[in-house]
Give the backbone structure.
Amino acid sequence: MMMSSSSRMVLRRLQMQHGAASASAMKMAMARPFSSTQSVLMAAKSKSKSNLITKINIAEHVAAEHELSKAKSKRIVDSIVDFMTQTIVDGGTVRLTKFGSLSRKTSKARMGTNPQTMAQMKIPEKQRIKFKASGVLKEQVN
């Protein structure tokens, strides 16, 4: 079985992060031929208890998929996240095809009740982040 160094590296990292929980998934992924590191990642993640993806996970995935250094892929992911953040802060919308869109929404000021004292109080206007899932993502989830 031929395995690239990046695939071996990803397997080792997954084993360290997820321990025995994903060991069987990694063995199964290694036993059958696969075309990319992605199938190994998906197999290990499916058996893991955590469904959390972080910026570091994304950078590592980009590095493995595109044969880049981790430092370079981290800079790329940071640059994308900074660009998206600044766009939202400036009042723009970030639209990612097949995923969804992120935008800034203003919640109007309103009256509320303090549950401890039952006193009426004014809740000030707030800026919130709104996410709207794309039809493709909704369809895949359901």
About this structure: The helical segments are 5-18, 23-31, 37-47, 55-66, 70-89, 135-141.
